[in-house]
């Protein structure tokens, strides 16, 4: 790469871009800011050494990683990407806590609903076991003359009235 087609690294360093420039594929001339930030943090010779010392198929990921780390270090000189990682870890803890709280609320609601169902079933079972009580209870609302009429009915005799 020579002349006007120099990579961002070679343009920034004001040198000719050799045909086998190790930086050219990862720092194109269309994105000079990317190289500028990485250069500010790592230095040009360290970037070249790092890229040359790793396998070809991993170089793009390494360059991307350096660019992200450099950008975050420029934004936050003290913590850099570690600050972002810490914020994300804190958010994960908060969300896990909210999830646990929600699961507890669901479990409580399910237990309450189950308890209500069991009580309803017990009441129904008790009512089925107590037909005499219900018949007598229903008759207690009637006048004594009405009770005599109903109790003389043969269908009530099977209940013992």
From TrEMBL:
Domain (LOB): residue spans on this chain? 5-106
Q: Which Pfam families match?
A: LOB
Query: InterPro entries, alphabetically?
Result: LOB
Q: Per the similarity annotation, which family is this?
A: Belongs to the LOB domain-containing protein family.
Protein name in UniProt:
LOB domain-containing protein
Organism from which the protein derives? Citrus clementina (Clementine)
């Amino acid at each position: 790469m020579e002349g006007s087609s120099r990579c961002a690294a070679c343009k920034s360093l004001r040198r000719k871009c050799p045909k086998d420039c190790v930086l050219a594929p990862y720092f194109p001339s269309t994105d000079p800011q990317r190289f500028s930030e990485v250069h500010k943090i790592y230095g040009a010779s360290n970037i070249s050494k790092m890229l040359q010392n790793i396998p070809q198929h991993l170089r793009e990921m390494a360059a991307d990683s350096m660019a992200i780390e450099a950008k975050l270090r420029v934004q936050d000189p003290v913590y850099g990407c570690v600050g972002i990682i810490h914020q994300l870890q804190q958010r994960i803890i908060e969300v896990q806590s909210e999830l646990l709280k929600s699961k507890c609320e669901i479990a409580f609601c399910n237990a309450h609903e189950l308890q209500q169902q069991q009580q309803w079933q017990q009441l129904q079972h008790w009512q089925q076991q107590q037909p005499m009580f219900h018949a007598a209870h229903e008759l207690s609302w009637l006048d004594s003359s009405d009770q005599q009429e109903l109790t003389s009915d043969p269908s009530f005799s099977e209940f013992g009235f």
